[in-house]
Write a structure and sequence with these properties.
The protein is mostly helical. Helices cover 68% and strands 0% of the residues. It has helices at 10-42, 50-64. The protein is elongated. The relative contact order is 0.10.
Length: 71
């Protein structure tokens, strides 16, 4: 984001970056909700594979990056 739009104002770049990050997080959460709903309806166990645990860990670490802006 910062390299592609390097000639733009920094505030605009930060806003675009924030929007893209929020969209990515929203897609990840939507995907997790879909998987849990699908598993629950089909009677499958949730979180039974390493793939599912890595996915949960990835979304959790992604969410932990959010911080308050500096004062």
């Amino acid at each position: 984001m910062y390299r592609v739009f390097s000639k733009e104002k920094k505030l605009l770049i930060k806003m675009l970056h924030a929007v893209m990050q929020l969209a990515a997080f929203g897609f990840a959460v939507t995907g997790l909700v879909a998987v849990f709903s699908s598993h629950n309806e089909a009677g499958f166990a949730n979180l039974y594979s390493i793939h599912s645990w890595v996915g949960i860990a990835t979304v959790t670490m992604f969410a932990m990056q959010v911080r308050a802006p500096p004062h």
